[in-house]
Amino acid sequence: MIYFDNSATTKIAPEALQSYVQTSERFWGNPSSLHRLGGQAFQVLEKAREHIATLLGAKTEEIFITSGGTESNNWAIKGTALEKRVFGNHIITTKIEHPSVLNTVKQLAQLGFEISYLDVNDKGEISLEQLESMLKKETILVSVMAVNNEIGVSQNIEEISRILEHFPWVHFHVDAVQALEQVPDLLALGRIDLLSLSAHKFHGPRGVGILYKKAGRKIQSLLTGGGQEKTERSTTENLPGIVATAKAMRMYLEAPHPMKEIREYLWNFLEQQSQIKIFSPKEGVDHILCFALKGVRGEVLVHAFEEEEIYISTTSACSSKKSDSSSTLAAMNVPDYWATSAVRASFSYLNTMDEAKQFVEVLEKLMKKFEFLK
């Protein structure tokens, strides 16, 4: 089996799973309980939080645990909107964000907030000039993903940060779910106020996310109750999942990554095929490669690969079961006949060059098969 769908989810690392099991068995007290078992669990929780903060280059008090990237994005955006609505109601985002951002701002628009959407060029890059022209005194939030989950384009977060230095009242949120390895450098810029991560994208467990909230920044809580997470997100903590997340994060950031070589090998093959169109920019991130085989719908190609025990996806896994074509490719003005044929191969540090070579062999076979059927 070859698994090239790591942007949808990764397999939990054995070491992270072991940490999950051991924590479940040894520290099953509620971290909020006053007794010894609760105290032990709380100490483990805070040690894991400290470890995550150190790996990301953040302060421990800036790390908040959530249920995943979707909750982190919702909390960052809605929390800012609720906190700062007395100062303004204008939010800026892009046309190629994850649905957890686009659907969130759509909901806020129904509540009276003004939403502006940044266009992208044929590479999926936003215009910094357009961003500057949209900013105004009523703007309270700019939300831009670091790496697009469908084609792997990186936005220029450094330049966006520079622009927003002149707008200190504006919260800057970055969806970094597909960009863990960039986070320490991004936070070092000093201008990001909120940043989202999801554990299952880096071989951690599902159901655990992270929201970085810069010290001194205020957002409203979405979950109120018992006062966990420094009273900002109430719910009993998923202690085994949090410990496993810290373990998986360290392993991901320290492991040798073969994705660059794998992507370059596949790119060099794909660009030589006249019936294939590549949508990912050549200078995109190492772990995502989006392309289409002319005249073959994406879901057909996905299932054809599946019959060969190779697993890829049609663009975003969050919308892959719908008949709609990619919102990212639509924003890039890719014709629908190409967009509906788009598939995404995505890699992790567990993949190998041998797998990439097998992928090419199977793709060559499928290209001949579909050409014969036309």
TrEMBL record:
InterPro entries attached to this UniProt entry: Aminotrans_V_dom, Aminotrans_V_PyrdxlP_BS, Cysteine_dSase, PyrdxlP-dep_Trfase, PyrdxlP-dep_Trfase_major, PyrdxlP-dep_Trfase_small
| Aminotransferase class V domain boundaries | 2-359
Q: Does the keyword Mitochondrion apply?
A: no
The source organism is: Granulicatella elegans ATCC 700633
Swiss-Prot/TrEMBL cofactor(s): pyridoxal 5'-phosphate
Q: Which family does it belong to?
A: Belongs to the class-V pyridoxal-phosphate-dependent aminotransferase family. NifS/IscS subfamily.
Q: Does the keyword Metal-binding apply?
A: yes
Q: Which Pfam families match?
A: Aminotran_5 (PF00266)
Alphabetically list the UniProt keywords: Iron, Iron-sulfur, Metal-binding, Pyridoxal phosphate
GO molecular function per UniProt: catalytic activity; iron-sulfur cluster binding; metal ion binding
Q: What is this protein called?
A: Aminotransferase class V domain-containing protein
